[in-house]
Amino acid sequence: MTARRQVSRPTMSRAEVDAFLGEQRVCRVATVSREGVPHVTPMWFVWDGSALWLYSLTRSRRWADLEHDPRIAAVVDAGGAFDELRGVELSGRAEFVGEVPRTGMPHGALREVERAYARQYLDLPELPHDGLHGWVRLGPRAIRTWDFRKLTEPHWPFSAASRPGREPGPAREEG
Residue 74: is it exposed, middle or buried by C-beta count within 10 angstroms (0-12/13-18/19+)? Predict the structure, then answer.
């Protein structure tokens, strides 16, 4: 059996994770169907410092997957060139919070989450409830991070900074 080589990679601190998740707008959420088929979808989210909150359609494949199997993972990432990549992967079990579908009945755990979601995505002070969505809370059992901006050596040919004749920065259009 071949030993697997462990590669050291730069990670984010807890404060960096909180700041990063506070500034990003889209995550990719992974669930598993009854048949074991993975399903990944982009979603808006709210990070409250301890959990990722998702406002999901209750008649979606994602919701059905989570009703059957609450295992869930989400990735939030940013960057273009290799040495600009950074991100957070959260995995755990989904918890449905509040009435399903959500109609706006008072719920202490949702008060600030709904306000944050409404401000961040809808530019409203309060979240309007449509009777089609419900809240999913991902309280992560594991958080994995990476921040390749912290790499100290160029990783040719992957980093923008190490390409001959190319200045670091946004990609140029060729042609």
Answer: buried
